[in-house]
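Researcher: Structure for this, please.
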Amino acid sequence: MDDSAGTSPSPADLIHSCQGLVRSIAWKIHQRLPRRIELDDLIGYGQVGLAEAARDFNLTRGVQFTTYAYYRVRGAVLDGLGTMAWFSKADYSHGRYEQAANAVLCESATEEGIGGELSWFVSTTRSLSAAFLISDYASACIENQNSDVVSPSSAAEADDLKRIIDQALDRLTEQERTLVKGIYFQGLSIKDAGEHIGISKAWASRLHARILQNLGLQLSSCSP
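Model: Predicted structure, token format:
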């Protein structure tokens, strides 16, 4: 399908055109999971993301639907994995960055590119860096709680990272801080973390992206 056509395709047409994309994304993620996880379950989660993408897609933004749908489908599959009982807190902590990064890229794919491509790249990279640092810190916290032995070097690095992140988190509003802690420290999906503070998934995604942009600036200015 040519997304650049003059008339906007219907949601049904968009969904039909991307069935192969859903299966491809689900299959790639499935290859890294335990055998007991059913591929069909992942495809089902992906179909939900595809339906949401088709519903929300805006042709006038100049973004190809396949690009927009990719991040929505992948995010839906990752969200679905987060609800599975087998997915432990420790396992999920390692997937937090992937989920957060996917959400950032999904949001950035809907932007109109104000400031040019370079500005978009710098902003997105800064947000991804913030997501990585927070995810890494959350993972370290969980691993240290489950381990009786922590090396001095690891403890020192963890203390430095904790100081930097705590300083950045302290500058957030209470709503923003609760959202971040829900996503990165409590293992909630962005949708569930948003519901916890009384906002929709769409608004939670936008707020999460904005928080990471601000945190990225703060973290880059207060490195050890």
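Researcher: Any notable elements?
Model: The two ends are 50 Å apart (CA to CA). Confidence is low (pLDDT under 50) at residues 1-5, 148-155.
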